[in-house]
Amino acid sequence: MAREGSYSTIRQKPRPLTITAIILLHILAMYGLAKAFAPEMTGSVERSVVSAFTVNITAPEEEVPPPPEVEPEPDEGAQGDPGREAVAKPVAAPEPKVVIKPSKPMPKATSTGTADTSGAADQGSGTGAAGTGLGTGGGQGGDGAGNARPPVAVTKPQHISGGIDNVRDYPIPEGGRQARRGNKVTVKVTVGVDGRASNCSIFRASPDPEADRLTCQLVVDRLRFKPASDSNGNPIAAPFYWQQRWF
Predict the structure, then answer these.
(1) Do residues 124 and 116 touch, judged by C-beta distance below 8 A?
(2) What total of structural domains would you count in the chain?
(3) Between helices 39-52 and 16-37, what is the axis angle to 10°?
(4) Residues 205 and 216 sit within 8 Å (Cβ to Cβ)
(5) Which residue range forms the structural domain that includes residue 207?
(6) Is 45 exposed, middle or buried (0-12, 13-18, 19+ CB in 10 A)?
(7) Which residues lie across from 191 on neighbouring strands?
(8) Does any domain span residue 206?
């Protein structure tokens, strides 16, 4: 038993866990030094340790199903003997029945002769179905009067001579000549084959009826024309329009 006033000299024993921890720390320190200075040696040791604990697990083999059964192709057999060539049987068409009707006698044609009446007699001196003559007819030309259409003008009449003076040929209207300035009149005449105008009429009148009437008279009396012509170049009568403007 220790005395009072002195320290205890009894030592406690180290525990097993503490000893184990110290040993592991020393091992880890040595392993770290070896890995730092000799990495190849530590790598081989690690591989050997890992291989010692490696367990190979083999998977069970899968059952492979048997291949499907293939049915054998049926035997087509050998080719048979060819048959006989088909030949069409000739068939005769029936003869058509043709019915011939008796022909009717043709009517008698007109002819010349000594008969006094016209008709279809074999001979006679009557009128025929056609012929020529100098009488009236429906043709376009002939020696007699007929219903021929009038010839069509191919060219128009052309003014070749004569003229009208806007100042001297017209009297002074009321209000002076300025009242007529800017107006115009159009007259229609017929130019004959002799080149003279006739049958004058007012086609478009002006505000001055007296000047329009005088224009018609001057056109007929003074103006001369080259007549129109047909397709054969013959002169024919044709209409002509004359416009008189007062400036």
Answers:
(1) yes
(2) 1
(3) 120
(4) no
(5) 158-245
(6) middle
(7) 197, 238
(8) yes
